[in-house]
Amino acid sequence: EVQLVESGGGLVQPGGSLKLSCKASGFTFSNALMNWVRQAPGKEVERVATIQTFHNYTNYADSVKGRFTISTDNANNMLYLQMNSLTPEDTATYYCTRVETSGSSQVDWGQGTQVTVSG
């Protein structure tokens, strides 16, 4: 089955940086549609970044464009999110997701990793 395991979250001061990781398994990662999404308490889920792992297509939410970078290490089935210039508004649980693109449109989620920007 599809498995997505996030790591790298933590507490960081405003203006700081953090790099999140997601280890993927159970599907062909080297040609996949992957996202980072986040959710803060009381707020809607927000897609922050997308990458197509074969074509290297990337797309970012306006709220993070220029500050966040999504990337992959296809040889190791790893998805990353480099986050710079963090603000308290970036505080959320961050999830990596995979969208099945052969018909079902099923979205698989990891367990999430907490990012807190404070101080």
Outline the fold blueprint.
Elements: E1 3-7, E2 10-12, E3 18-25, E4 33-39, E5 46-52, E6 57-60, E7 68-73, E8 78-83, E9 92-99, E10 107-109, E11 113-117
Parallel strand pairs: 2-11
Antiparallel strand pairs: 1-3, 3-8, 4-5, 4-9, 5-6, 7-8, 9-10, 9-11
Unreliable residue runs: none
The overall pLDDT, averaged over residues, is 97
How far is the first residue's CA from the last residue's CA?
40 Å
Helix content: under 10%
Shape: globular
Number of discrete helical segments: 0
Helix-strand topology string: EEEEEEEEEEE
What proportion strand?
over 45%
The structure class reads: mainly beta
The beta-strand count equals 11
Main sheet overview:
7 strands, mixed
Measured on Cα atoms, how large is the radius of gyration?
A: 14 Å
Salient structural properties:
119 residues, mainly beta
Write up what this structure looks like.
This protein is mainly beta and 119 residues long. It contains no helices and 11 strands. The strands form 2 sheets. Strands 2, 4, 5, 6, 9, 10 and 11 form a 7-stranded mixed sheet that branches. A 4-stranded antiparallel sheet has the order 1-3-8-7, with no helix packed on it.
Quick gist of this model?
It is globular and about 45 Å long.
